[in-house]
C-alpha cells in the first residue's frame, strides 16, 4: 500500500536500473515494515538538469563549473 | 483552493479524457466539501511505464508478462 | 494503478467526507480511463491554514480579512 | 542529489524503522545509480488510515472489514 | 535541507528564468529560516497546458476562450 | 496558477515566517515569470526530524551527533 516517489536527474538511466530501483524500494518496505508488495507503488520522475537546483544553482551550471 | 494531483501511466490519454478528469475532480471537491472551483487546481502527471512500478515490477514488465 | 493526491485545508473534514472523496476519485479514474480500482491509491493531505497560501497570503489571514 | 518520498499509513512506525528506511533508500540510490549520498534527501510521510484509500475504500474501512 | 517543488505550465520558460527561480527560492529559505543552502534542493516541473486544470477547465481551453 | 510546495523540518517555524515564505514565493513567481498571483498556491509541509533523512541518516541523529 505504500507509495514511493524517486526523483532523479535525467541522465540516461536505463530500463534495467529503473527495474532495480523499483525492486529495491519495494523490498525495502517489505523488509522493514512488512508491507504487502502487491499494492506497493513506486514512481520514478526524471528531471532535466536545468530544472534541478542545489546550493542555489542548477545542476547544469554546477556540472559546467566542474562541481 | 484544493490541489489535486493525478498520476497515471502515459498511455495515449486524450485531451478530451484529461478535460473529463479535471472537470470530474473539480466537481468532486465542490460537491463533497463545498470548495470554490475558481482557485481549485488539478495537475495530471503522465508517467512512462518503465518508470512506474507495482508489486516490485515495472508496468512495462507486467504487461509483457500478460499481467 | 493510478495515484491521486488531494490536498485540502484542515477544516474538520469528516471521515464520511473522506470516504466520499476516495470513492469519487476512484470512480472518476475507472469511468474516464477504465483503470482497475484494486490498485488505485488516493491519499488526502490536510494542511493547516497557516501553511496554505493563495494570492500571496495565508488562508488564515484571508479568512480574518473576510475574503 | 536525488529526492525520495515514502508515503505510508500512520501505524506506529518506530524511529528505528524510519532510520532503516532512510538508510536503505539512500543505499539503493548509491548502489544502483552511483549517486552521492551527502545531498540525498529522503522524506517519510505518515498518513492517517482515514486519509488513505485503496480500491475505493479507506484503509480504516478495509481493516474493519477484515481485508 | 529544505525541498522546494515549483510546478508551472510548460510555456517556454528559459534556462535563465529557471536559474532565477532556483536562486530566488534558495535565498528565500536562507533569509526567512536561516537554512543551509548547500543541501537545499529545488525541483521545477513543467506541465503541459492540457494537463493543468483550474476552475474545472484545462489551461488550454481557458486560453482558447480568452481567459 | 503555479503551485509551490515547500518542505521543511518541523522546528517551531512561526506564523510570521510562514507568511514571509508564502509572500516571498509568490513574488518570486510573479517577478520571474509574470504569473498572476490570484491563483498562485503555496503549501508548506513541516516534517518531523525523525522523518527527514539526509546523507543516509535522520536529521534527529545528525543533530545528536552535532552535524
Distance between the termini of chain A: 39 Å
Instruction: Tell me the number of strands of chain A.
Output: 4
**Remind me, CATH topology of chain A?**
Macrophage Migration Inhibitory Factor
SSE-based structural type of chain A: alpha+beta
Helix fraction of chain A by DSSP (H/I, runs of at least 4): 25-40%
Overall morphology of chain A: elongated
Radius of gyration of chain A: 15 Å
Strand order of the largest sheet of chain A: 1-2
For the largest interface, the chains and their residue counts are:
A-D, 25 and 25 residues
* CATH class bucket of chain A: Alpha Beta
> Treating each run of at least 4 consecutive H or I residues as one helix, how many helices of chain A?
2
What is the CATH homology-level superfamily of chain A? Macrophage Migration Inhibitory Factor
Key phrases:
2 helices, elongated, two-stranded antiparallel ribbon, 67 residues, homohexamer, alpha+beta, two-stranded parallel sheet, Macrophage Migration Inhibitory Factor, 28% strand
Question: Could you please describe the fold and organization of this structure?
Answer:
The structure is a homohexamer of 67-residue chains. The first copy, chain A, has one domain (3-64): Macrophage Migration Inhibitory Factor. Helices cover 37% and strands 28% of the residues of chain A. The first copy, chain A, is built from 2 helices and 4 strands, in the order E-H-E-E-E-H. In chain A, strands 1-2 form a two-stranded parallel sheet. Chain A has a two-stranded antiparallel ribbon with strand order 3-4. In chain A, a hairpin with a 2-residue loop joins strand 3 (52-54) and strand 4 (57-58). Chain A binds chain D through residues 1-9, 13, 17, 20-21, 24-25, 28-29, 31-33, 35, 39, 52, 54, 59, and chain D through 1-9, 13, 17, 20-21, 24-25, 28-29, 31-33, 35, 39, 52, 54, 59.
